[in-house]
């Protein structure tokens, strides 16, 4: 194709009238462009630089590539032909004419370019052709960085069915991107239920009436839903279990389960203690109810048969360990009213995974309020139940399991973290798509995430990262020829990302949509605890101490709503009058001061309980 003919074609397409240059070398999936003087224009819409997309006019095909390197270090023959620079290009795909006669973009290249083939920058029309909606299940996550007039579409079906990950260091807009992606999934696939593990309590206000927020105050996750490894982890405070005590638990838990069903509703439960180990009928992992008092009674009954003091102490320590956890108010979500209503596994599944038709399609599980030593076990239970429900329902309810801070639960180091949690997430990654259970990962340290799990994610949103180890992991995870684009990752701006994989027509540099203030993720505690200098006084600190103590106080003395949450949920009020400089905000102070009354109530109860 001659330069004049090419110039006329680009003018008709509404793009740059001058060609960029010509192919001077081809090697596998890469090509080298000799850039003409006109291709070095300083105009923003036609300037040539790295990450720009180009079109190679090769016979009857139009090949699409991305510039990965540009240099003035020309070979002598290129200078002789009038070229002013050279650019390295990775080939991505091509625009073909389909059976209906329409132009369609296809990934991969069927014909490679030849020497002297002409090259131009992509026009807006060509961008829209490449990134056009491919079907109903697509969503707009932002704008293309190279052409801000073109929407960046993601194929939601491909995104979900082959898993995805959002990667980027702290402060680059990662949480903003997660909200944008989930909003598009909710819109494009209303049949999909989303379960989001919110490690820092950031997302509670982002989805409005579409989501239910669960936390230790309103969650009911009965202890009997925990499998053997998980309940042992709870009893031993996330430390390795003592072998003799673990063996005792392995013997009596199946008996407690069998006894619950056999003597359900009986007032006198002494018969449970006489259960025969051979007639239990259940394993330690069968998800059926049992009563904690029965479990302790079985251990106590066995201890009573022993005469050796040292052996009896093993049983005594185990009972003490169980009773300490059972009576800890922080574990009320597991043990309080755990047997009320009998076998409530169906109700728990409905609450957790929003299985009611036409209900709220999303669950936000706020993890920041849980005891640190039990978080891994809780995440393990949730991930395992999500997969098992998909497995045994044959994928009847498609579900996205979204895991924030994924490196905490599935570490690359096998000696770090809780094994069952890693296995639960790994199982979803490897087998979940067969049963309608999809995985979304969010992490700031890809190098610390299990590479086997990351490799199962076929769509990656890569935001700014400077760590060499993280970038090395990404290079091994990105299968596209555009892996060279990862060299630009350290220089990405806020809310910018490179999107690779099945969810996009091409490896794409995009800017996530900016969210309105009410939909932006933020840590509620941090935002509402910011006080001006001199605004904190003794009574404010006292109210904070009462909230602090409330985490280990029974429900009788624990406020249902923190003063900061009360502010968030209260109806809008007229603006408060101006306060003197250096004083505490009057409205906030009045809310916090209410908590001081809790101390008086505790004191009064204590005085009544002290024998005179």
Describe the secondary-structure layout.
Blueprint: H1 3-12, E1 21-27, E2 30-35, E3 53-58, E4 61-71, H2 76-80, E5 85-97, E6 103-107, E7 118-121, H3 124-130, E8 138-144, E9 151-155, H4 156-161, E10 164-167, H5 174-188, E11 193-198, E12 211-214, H6 228-235, H7 243-262, H8 292-304, H9 309-326, H10 332-335, H11 345-353, E13 362-366, H12 372-392, E14 399-403, H13 406-409, H14 419-431, E15 437-443, H15 451-454, E16 459-462, H16 468-477, E17 496-501, E18 508-512, H17 524-529, H18 538-550, H19 563-569, H20 586-593, H21 596-609
Parallel strand pairs: 10-15, 10-16, 11-13, 11-14, 12-13, 14-15
Antiparallel strand pairs: 1-2, 1-7, 2-5, 3-4, 3-7, 4-5, 5-6, 8-9, 8-18, 16-17, 17-18
Please give a quick description of this structure:
The C terminus is likely disordered.
Provide structural commentary.
The structure is a single chain. The chain has 612 residues and is α/β, with parallel strands linked by helices. The chain folds into four domains: 3-130, Beta Barrel (Elongation Factor Tu (Ef-tu), domain 3), CATH 2.40.30; 153-220 and 344-516, Rossmann fold, CATH 3.40.50; 224-335, no CATH class; 524-609, no CATH class. Helix content is 35%, strand content 18%. The chain is built from 21 helices and 18 strands. The protein has helices at 3-12, 76-80, 124-130, 156-161, 174-188, 228-235, 243-262, 292-304, 309-326, 332-335, 345-353, 372-392, 406-409, 419-431, 451-454, 468-477, 524-529, 538-550, 563-569, 586-593, 596-609; strands at residues 21-27, 30-35, 53-58, 61-71, 85-97, 103-107, 118-121, 138-144, 151-155, 164-167, 193-198, 211-214, 362-366, 399-403, 437-443, 459-462, 496-501, 508-512. Strands 9-8-18-17-16-10-15-14-11-13-12 form an eleven-stranded mixed beta sheet. Helix 12 runs parallel beside helix 14. The radius of gyration is 31 Å and the shape is elongated.
């Amino acid at each position: 194709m001659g330069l004049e003919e090419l110039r006329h074609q680009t003018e008709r397409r509404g793009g740059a009238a001058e060609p960029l240059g010509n192919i001077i070398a081809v090697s596998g999936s890469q090509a080298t462009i000799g850039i003409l003087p006109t291709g070095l224009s300083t105009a923003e819409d036609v300037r040539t630089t790295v990450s720009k997309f180009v079109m190679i006019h090769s016979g009857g095909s139009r090949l699409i590539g991305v510039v990965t390197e540009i240099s003035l270090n020309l070979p002598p023959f290129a200078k002789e032909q009038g070229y002013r620079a050279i650019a390295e290009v990775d080939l991505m795909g091509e625009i073909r004419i389909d059976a209906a006669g329409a132009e369609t973009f296809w990934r991969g290249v069927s014909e490679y370019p030849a020497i002297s083939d002409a090259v131009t920058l992509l026009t807006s029309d060509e961008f829209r052709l490449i990134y056009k909606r491919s079907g109903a299940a697509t969503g707009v996550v932002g704008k293309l960085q190279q052409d801000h007039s073109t929407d960046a579409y993601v194929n939601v079906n491909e995104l979900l069915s082959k898993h995805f990950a959002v990667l980027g260091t702290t402060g680059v807009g990662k949480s903003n991107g997660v909200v944008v992606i989930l909003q598009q999934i909710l819109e494009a696939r209303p049949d999909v239920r989303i379960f989001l593990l919110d490690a820092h309590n950031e997302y509670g206000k982002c989805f409005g009436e579409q989501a239910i927020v669960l936390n230790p105050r309103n969650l009911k996750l009965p202890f009997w839903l925990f499998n053997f490894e998980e309940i042992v982890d709870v009893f031993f405070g996330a430390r390795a279990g003592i072998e003799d005590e673990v063996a005792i638990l392995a013997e009596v838990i199946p008996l407690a389960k069998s006894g619950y069903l056999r003597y359900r509703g009986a007032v006198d439960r002494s018969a449970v203690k006489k259960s025969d180990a051979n007639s239990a009928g259940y394993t330690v992992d069968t998800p059926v109810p049992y009563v904690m008092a029965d479990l302790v009674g079985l251990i106590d009954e066995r201890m009573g048969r022993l005469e050796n003091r040292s052996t009896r102490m093993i049983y005594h320590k185990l009972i003490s360990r169980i009773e300490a956890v059972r009576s800890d108010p922080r574990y009320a979500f597991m043990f309080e009213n755990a047997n009320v209503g009998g076998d409530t596994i169906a109700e728990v599944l409905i609450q957790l995974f929003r299985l009611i038709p036409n209900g709220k399609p999303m669950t936000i599980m706020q993890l920041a309020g849980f005891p640190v030593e039990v978080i891994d076990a809780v995440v393990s239970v949730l991930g395992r139940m999500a997969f098992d429900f998909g497995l045994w329902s044959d994928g009847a309810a498609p579900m996205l399991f979204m895991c924030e801070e994924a490196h905490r639960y599935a570490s690359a180091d096998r000696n770090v973290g809780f094994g069952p949690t890693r296995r639960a997430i790994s199982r979803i990654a490897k087998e979940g798509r067969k049963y309608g259970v999809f995985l979304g990962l969010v992490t700031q340290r890809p190098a610390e995430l299990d590479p086997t799990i990351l490799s199962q994610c076929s769509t990656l949103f890569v935001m700014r990262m400077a760590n060499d180890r993280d970038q090395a992991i990404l290079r091994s995870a990105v299968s596209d020829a555009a892996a060279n684009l990862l060299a630009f990752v350290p220089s990405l701006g806020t809310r910018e990302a490179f999107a690779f994989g099945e969810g996009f027509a091409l490896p794409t540099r995009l800017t996530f949509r900016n969210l309105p203030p009410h939909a932006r993720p933020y840590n509620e505690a941090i935002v509402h605890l910011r006080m001006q200098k001199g605004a904190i006084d003794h009574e404010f600190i006292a109210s904070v101490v009462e909230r602090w103590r409330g985490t280990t106080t029974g429900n009788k003395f624990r406020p249902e709503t923190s003063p900061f949450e009360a502010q968030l949920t209260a109806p809008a009020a007229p603006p408060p009058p101006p306060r003197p400089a250096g004083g505490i905000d009057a409205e906030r102070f009045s809310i916090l001061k209410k908590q001081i009354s809790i101390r008086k109530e505790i004191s009064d109860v204590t005085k009544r309980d002290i024998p005179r």
